[in-house]
Specification:
CATH superfamily of the largest domain: P-loop containing nucleotide triphosphate hydrolases
CATH class of the largest domain: Alpha Beta
Number of helices: 10
Structural class: alpha/beta
CATH topology of the largest domain: Rossmann fold
Helix content: 25-40%
Length: 286
């Protein structure tokens, strides 16, 4: 765990309220810490606040109250938000948002315009397309690429200005399972090899399980966090949070009376579920 004060992201009582009449708390006093080089998933039902949290961290939205600190710098005190986003944060969205009349190479160059000379932009864009496995598709238009390839271009574009942080909102949402898995493998590789911090918002548990920490949100609050373990440990965590798992943890023998499970088996399952339900984040961060 990173020492206090060395977080890449820290939020303090972060709150975002919508509505002039009845107040809707999209974020409700969220306290979050992300270490440099982490690969984190944010999950939760629609309306839980996960995309709002991403937008506020990325300076695309303004909180009603509370703070966002990036490398200890308060976002509210940064005057040039465009410059901040260009140099510090890369974005990947569910819709790739590539410009349809530009080639893959030209799309990757776009964030560097005004920051680097043309020859340097072109060189960097070629390197990034090679990095994401699309060096041979640099002159293709988005319409000539598959969905997975378009998202790879979007990831390359997000890295154009060497940001230490990439925010990805449902990056696999429009992909099939194979393409989605390939994209997550790429994100994991970039996280490991480049040391880039990734925060991935997703509804897909299989995507979340490919990260290293999962933050679960509900009603604008962080409900719980889990560190990612082995596949077996992850299955046990899921079972422990299921209705059956909760009954076993509560030792509700009456509700479980119809199941062909002996008392000894029940106790063994309860012990296993208790051990795995307790594994996860630092409790003070929830």
């Amino acid at each position: 765990m990173t020492e206090k004060g060395n977080w890449i992201i820290e939020t303090c009582d972060l709150t975002r309220i919508y509505g002039d009449g009845e107040k809707i708390y999209a974020l409700d006093h969220v306290n979050l810490h992300i270490s440099p080089g982490e690969l984190v998933a944010i999950m939760g039902p629609s309306g839980s606040g996960k995309s709002t949290l991403l937008n506020v961290i990325g300076a695309l939205d303004i909180p009603t109250s509370g703070q966002v600190l990036i490398h200890g710098q308060d976002l509210s005190k940064i005057r040039n938000k465009d410059q901040f986003r260009a140099s510090t944060v890369g974005f990947v969205f569910q819709m790739h948002n590539l410009l349809p009349t530009m080639t893959a190479l030209e799309n990757v160059e776009v964030p560097m315009m005004g920051h680097r000379p043309p020859w340097e932009r072109r060189k960097r864009a070629k390197e990034l397309l090679e990095l994401v496995g699309l060096g041979n598709r640099s002159n293709h238009l988005p319409g000539q690429l598959s969905g997975g390839q378009r998202q790879r271009v979007a990831i390359a574009r997000s890295l154009a200005n060497n940001p230490p942080l990439v925010l990805a909102d449902e990056p696999t949402g429009n992909l099939d399972s194979v393409a989605g898995n390939d994209l997550m493998n790429l994100i994991r590789d970039l996280n490991t090899s480049q040391g880039i911090t990734f925060i991935v918002v997703t509804h897909d548990l299989n995507v979340a399980r490919q990260t290293r920490r999962v933050i679960v949100m509900a009603d604008g609050k962080i409900e719980r966090e889990d560190t990612i373990g082995s596949p077996i440990e992850e299955d046990l965590k899921i079972w422990s949070h299921s209705d059956l798992g909760k009954l076993i943890l509560q030792n509700d023998r009456a509700a479980l009376a119809d199941l062909a499970i002996t008392t000894d088996q029940m106790e063994a399952l309860r012990e296993i579920f208790e051990q795995n339900a307790d594994k996860g984040p630092d409790k003070e961060m929830v």
